[in-house]
Amino acid sequence: MRITDPRWPAARELSRILLRTDDITIQGPSWMKEQIHRLGIRLGDVQPSRTTFPAFAPHEHEEIRLIATTSSQTLAICGVDEPSMDILWLPMTPTDAWETLASMTDDLLNAGYPGCLGCGGPQSEQPWDEIQSRKSMN
User: Residue 99: CA atoms inside 13 Å, Cβ hemisphere, count?
Assistant: First the structure.
């Protein structure tokens, strides 16, 4: 995904959520299980003090969901159906979304995120604005 794509800020924020949120479950198609396992290994290598890693749960819908494990709150959805405004939405198919997220999380980890100042990108220091994000995608 190019930085000029209107979905880029949402994908970047979703990647940051993946990297900074403890106790997160990623629900998605069964092919993602190995991908999530590899992400956990990478996180352990780059963030040695981290004690919890993303869990995977198979999901029958054509979407990816990021769930806060302790509260069962849906934090983000990658899919074609628009969720409520309190959920970060990345309008992409699971395959395209995961390809984008894997690339972005790798870039962020290589830059030192989340333990660095400013390496998360321009929006990383400010609260996420889902309303503005969706307006920019229309």
Answer: 7
Element (DSSP H or E) covering residue 75: strand 73-78
Host domain of residue 102: 8-137
Rounded CA-CA distance 26/105 in Å is 14
Query: Tokens representing 109?
Result: 């980890």
Q: What is the pLDDT of residues 2-38, one digit of tens each?
A: 888 999 999 999 999 998 888 999 999 999 999 999 9
DSSP 87: S
Place of tokens 């400013």: 118
Whole-structure pTM value: 0.89
For residue 1, is it within any domain? no
Distance in angstroms (rounded) separating the CA atoms of residues 121 and 56: 27
pLDDT at 138 over 70: yes
How many distinct structural domains can be found in the chain? 1
Residue 15 lies in a domain: yes
- Do the domain assignments include residue 116? yes
φ/ψ region of 72 (left if φ > 0, alpha if ψ in -120 to 50, else beta) reads left
